[in-house]
């Protein structure tokens, strides 16, 4: 689960940096749409970075950690596809990436459901 901790730290730092850039570096009404996308991406990225850290901390308490490992990877895929697509649209104007965002959203949902399944298996 070392990768989960590393990815949690890197994604957390990136989310904070992008959120700060959106708030301070994307001023002006012509940037409102792009700033909103970056803020949304940073928010989801930060929430899921914290989830990755929590998952890494749970590994020692769950006998069969398979669900936790898959949950961590699903959340990482969600960050790449959902947040990455928002950033691509905001910074590159590549609106075609909007079609990729739902893949990331489904990965986020799957990650949370796998986390729930791991908890049920351990504490149910």
UniProtKB/TrEMBL annotation:
Transmembrane intervals: 46-63, 70-90, 96-120
Keyword list, A-Z: Membrane, Signal, Transmembrane, Transmembrane helix
Xref: InterPro entries: DUF423
Extent of the signal sequence: 1-22
Cell compartment(s), UniProt: Membrane
Membrane-topology annotation of the record: Multi-pass membrane protein
Family membership noted in the UniProt record: Belongs to the UPF0382 family.
UniProt-listed PANTHER family: TRANSMEMBRANE PROTEIN 256
The protein's name: DUF423 domain-containing protein
């Amino acid at each position: 689960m070392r990768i989960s901790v590393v990815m949690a730290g890197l994604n957390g730092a990136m989310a904070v940096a992008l959120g700060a850039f959106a708030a301070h570096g994307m001023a002006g009404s012509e940037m409102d749409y792009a700033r909103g996308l970056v803020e949304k991406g940073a928010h989801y990225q930060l929430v899921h970075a914290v989830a990755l850290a929590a998952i890494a901390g749970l590994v020692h308490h769950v006998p069969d950690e398979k669900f936790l490992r898959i949950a961590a990877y699903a959340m990482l895929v969600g960050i790449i596809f959902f947040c990455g697509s928002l950033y691509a649209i905001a910074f590159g104007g590549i609106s075609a990436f909007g079609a990729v965002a739902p893949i990331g959203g489904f990965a986020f949902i799957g990650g949370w459901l796998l986390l729930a399944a791991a908890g049920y298996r351990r504490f149910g």
